[in-house]
Sequence to fold (78 residues):
Amino acid sequence: MGNLQVWERGSTQNRLAFTMSNLTSQTQNIEASRSSIQDTDFAAEAADLAKNQILAQSATAMLAQASAISQNFLSLLR
Fold:
């Protein structure tokens, strides 16, 4: 094997190593981004759930108050 072939093989190996390193880095960045997006979606859904639970509790409390008011009004009429 001549010096040129050794040099070409080394050059090819260096390019492959560089490409593998870049692909590994890109894969890690994509995974980190995907994880961040999933975490963000989870946080938004958790906030929506809490908001909807508070709204449901408020509606239940208002219905209870309305019922109590109407019962008081009926007792005044008797």
Summary: The CA atoms of residues 33 and 70 lie 55 Å apart. The chain has a mean pLDDT of 89. The two ends are 113 Å apart (CA to CA).
